[in-house]
Amino acid sequence: MSVQSLVSAKKKTFIGLPAPLGYVPGLGRGATGFTTRSDIGPARDIDDISDDRHAPPIKKSKNDDEEEEDLNDANYDEFTGYGGSLCAKDPYDKDDEEADAIYEEIDKRMDDKRRERRELKLKEELEKYRQERPKIQQQFSDLKRDLAAVSEDEWLNIPEVGDARNKKQRNARAEKFTPVPDSVLARAAASTGTANTISDRDQKFGGLNTPFGAITPLGTSTPSADIDMKKIGQARNTLMDIKLTQVSDSVSGQTVVDPKGYLTDLQSMLPSHGGDINDVKKARLLLKSVRETNPKHPPAWIASARLEEVTGKMQIARNLIMKGCEECPKSEDVWLEAARLMPGDQAKAVIAQAVRHLPTAVRVWIKAADLESEIKAKKRVFRKALEMIPNSVRLWKQAVELENEEEANGNIHMVEKIIDRALSSLRANMVEINRELWIKDAEDCEQAGSIHTCQAIVRAVIGVGVEDEDKKHTWMEDAESCAAHEAYECARAIFAHALSVYPSKKSIWLRAAYFEKSHGTRESLESLLQRAVAHCPKAEVLWLMGAKSKWLAGDVPAARSILALAFQANPNSEEIWLAAVKLESENNEFERARRLLQKARASAPTARVMMKSIKLEWCLGEIKNAHTLLQEAVKHYPDFAKLWMMKGQIEEQNNNKELAREAYNQGLKKCPRAIPLWLLMSRLEEKSGQLIKARSILEKARLKNPQCAELWLEAVRVENRGGLKNIAQTLMARALQECPNSGILWAESIAMEPRPQRKTKSVDALRKCEHDPHVLLAASKYIFWAERKVAKAREWFNRTVKIEPDLGDAWAYFYKFEQAHGDE
């Protein structure tokens, strides 16, 4: 048997297999001297059974190219799916590299777009933080500036600051010095010296249990020499210079620090008067770094010049900004800043250079015009500017504003030419004309007193961009808008243009007339109405407005002549006939009025003409003539309720109650919907003492006219006048159920309540009818006036007459209230 076969026979089966979990070599024979807790974990006995008897399965080796996809839930997203690259197994070629470069460039561009907004937000947050938590130095800066006004005597008279310490602190105990024992000195000498022998204790314990921290000195001894602060400052400056140099890209020479970020932080570092000089030095150093790393960045030069301006070094500021103009000749801001810092003639020279470098810069041309003191020179500048930039709306507006000054000097004819030339040039250069902005400029011109300029602008732009079918509506809205902005001349110009385009439109003439009546003079109104009736002779209201204007002015013959012309244009117009009758009767010309009514009955017989004729005869005491006219009128116009009312009232006046009752009954048969006729019939019966009959008449009227608040109110008042309060309360409850939103019923309900309950009832009424004038009047009378709350009552009376100016009761009570509680 060979040796190889013996070795094979004795070979153990576990040779080459992985060790079981928790196996420690030599643990079985007690060889544990060279292991630590970190090697074996917690101590265990030799008989302990491992937690896992089986070794973990051998992981299959896998190549880097065959990475499995991670399908864990943590790697899953609802929108993008499982993470990882879909193309990880594909080769990375030049197309992939170019695509990655493009995406990286896009990300960089997007970041540049957001940077300015991000920096602005950061700047605002930083300023807000520093405003909320200012430095101590900033808090006392105003007080320090006030010290400049303190005189020498005041300074010497400042009292000494007292010692606020207590007695124990003021009288400190004297220091005591105790001699140090020799043992302490010997121990100190031994600690700093070197030993070449080992003590018995060290030999016994091996020298490994040296106590830590008690005797062993920590760190090296500090040298006792003085600290050189100057060298430390120089080292700090050198370190800062190194850091600023490191932020530059060594390849392209461009800074990798955003200059706008530097300037954003610098804006908060600019020192104010009385600030710390160290802040100025820091800002100056920072700006110098920005200028050196990126000399073509205009804000760096502007900020540097303003820093020197704040610190009072004007010449250095001017030198810096002029160097900035050399480095950035295409920057408007740098040139404008240079012109601002330079005095007088030098500023003009700087602007002249700016114009040569930037011939199309609008702000530069405007600054050049501002530097000129004479109007002719300003005109020359604007003329040259408009030759270079004919499509600039701002330049044209500046030129128009300059013509406003010419208008003040009487040169009006140039205004129209300038505006027409401006609009023609803008259209030729394909510039859109915004009519709203131009009308706004016209309003500004009117506010400045340039009436002809504003009217010329309106005439030039009012028709721009408006379709033919929308012109009338749009122009009326523009006129109302100008009137609302108190630009009355602009509105007048719009009306004039609209009337020139639509001279026969009655509605435009009426709006223009109402505008002149509200915002113009009597002369302008009459002039407008004369032109209106010439273009629209059939518009009766225009004739009547003209006649009324003359009548109110006291010119009765002129009013008569206008009405005579109106008769010629409208021979059968009822309105004009009645207006002529009113004019004569108001001026006590009753015979003329009677003749006019006679002519009217012959040429234009209507129910109103007959009614006015009867009323005139009745007022003049000619009852017989009135009777005759009434008999004729009711035959021709039996459905006109007012004729029956007048007939019944005339009979009632003559104490012919039966004839009056008969007239009312006939009228109600013809006109059952006439509420005043029902009320007259009921009051006639009530006056006759027939309360039950009056009640039945009102009940019958409510059946024929349901939900009529006036009838319910009359029924309640009939019961109140009869002394039947309980029946009146019941009727009022029924009335409010049928007409819950009637203001007159709620007002009467408040008046009927006892004084303590009126406030509650008024709250319910206001909840139902918040803006009803009758409810407001009742609250003013019975709540505030009755409680002597004068200021509150006056406020509610004002609200009432403002909501309904035609409510006579409100004005009467308001007048009575002011007589009692007002002053002269």
Topology:
Elements: H1 3-10, H2 37-40, E1 76-77, E2 81-82, H3 94-132, H4 136-139, H5 141-146, H6 152-156, H7 167-170, H8 182-192, H9 200-205, H10 229-246, H11 259-267, H12 277-293, H13 298-310, H14 314-327, H15 332-341, H16 344-357, H17 362-371, H18 375-388, H19 393-408, H20 413-428, H21 435-447, H22 451-461, H23 471-484, H24 488-501, H25 506-519, H26 522-535, H27 540-552, H28 556-569, H29 574-586, H30 590-603, H31 607-619, H32 623-636, H33 641-653, H34 657-670, H35 675-687, H36 691-704, H37 709-721, H38 725-738, H39 743-752, H40 758-768, H41 773-785, H42 790-803, H43 808-821
Antiparallel strand pairs: 1-2
Features:
elongated; 2 strands; 66% helix; 824 residues; nucleus; mRNA processing; mainly alpha; phosphoprotein; coiled coil; repeat
If you had to describe this structure to a student in words, what would you say it looks like?
By secondary structure, the protein is an all-alpha fold. Helix content is 66%, strand content 0%. The chain is built from 43 helices and two strands. A two-stranded antiparallel sheet has the order 1-2. Helix 21 (435-447) packs antiparallel against helix 22 and helix 31 runs parallel beside helix 33 (641-653). The longest helix is centred in the N-terminal third of the chain and has 39 residues, at 94-132. It is found in: Nucleus speckle; Nucleus, Nucleoplasm. Residues 42-55 have a biased composition (Basic and acidic residues). Residues 19-167 form the PRP1 splicing factor N-terminal domain. Residues 34-78 are annotated as: Disordered.
